[in-house]
Amino acid sequence: MQASEAEKPRIVILISGNGSNMQAIAEAVQNQEIDAEIAGIISNRPQAEGLSKAQAMGLHTDIIDHTLYVSREEFDHALIRMIEDLKPDLVVLAGFMRILTADFTRYFEGNLLNIHPSLLPKYQGLNTHQRALDAGDNEHGVTVHFVTEELDGGPNAIQAVIPILDIDNAKALQQRIQIQEHIIYPIAVKWFCEGRLNMNGQLAFLDGQELPTSGIQLHS
Ligand code: GAR
Q1: Are 36 and 95 found together in one domain?
Q2: Is-above-0.85 flag for pTM?
Q3: Which domain holds residue 176?
Q4: Is 154's C-beta closer than 6 angstroms to any atom of ligand 1?
Q5: What is the Å distance from ligand 1's center to 66 Cα?
Q6: Once rounded to an integer, what is the mean pLDDT over residues 48-66?
Q7: Is the shortest distance between the CB of 128 and ligand 1 below 6 Å?
Q8: What is the predicted pLDDT for the residue at 2?
Q9: Is 29 exposed, middle or buried (0-12, 13-18, 19+ CB in 10 A)?
Q10: pLDDT in tens, 21-31
Q11: Three-state SS at 123
C-alpha cells in the first residue's frame, strides 16, 4: 500500500449504485484538483449505474458479484485480492452498500475511507435522513471517516452540516446532503493523497494535529 515517490497515489473506488461520489472524486482527479490516479472502480452489483459513468470517463472497472459467494468472508477475501491487483494507496467506499468483515477493514485500516449521510457518531446504519427528522433535529449532515471494524464508527475526517428546514422531508434532505457529499469527499481524498490526512491509533490527524470527534466541520 505504498507508492514510490515518483508515482502518484493510486485510488480504488468501491460502489454499489449510482456512483455520484465516485464521479465527483474521479472528476477532481481528471481536473488535477487531486494529484492522484484512479486505479479502478469496483462494483459488487453488475447493474450499478456508476459502472457506465466510470466507463464513460475512461476508467478501469471491475465487477465482483457478492451473490456468487457462499459467505461474507469468502466475498471479502476475493474483494481484497481484486483491490490488491490494482495496487492501491487509498480505498474509497462511495455508496458501497455491503457490511465488511473485520478481516477486510483491518487489512486496509488507515487507507480506507467511507462517506456516511449523517453527522457521525449520530445515526449509524440506514434511513439517516428520516431518523434526523423524527428526532426533531435542527441540523443534519454527512461525514467522511476512516473505516474501522465498527460499522460507521471509525474516526471522522470531515463533516458538512446543513440546517433542517420546517418544510424538509427525507427526499429533500437527501438531495441537499448529496450536494455536500460531492464537496467534502474530494476534499478528504485530496488531503489523504497529499499526505495531510492520516489515521493513527483510532484517531484522525490533519497536518499532524489530532482532529476533533466531528472531524473538520463545514457549515452551510
Ligand atoms: C451516498 O449518499 C452515501 O452517503 C450513501 O450512499 C449514497 C451513495 O450515492 N452511503 C451510505 O449510506 C453508507 N452507509 P452515490 O452512489 O451516488 O455516490
Answers
A1: yes
A2: yes
A3: 115-220
A4: no
A5: 18
A6: 98
A7: no
A8: 54
A9: buried
A10: 999 999 999 99
A11: coil
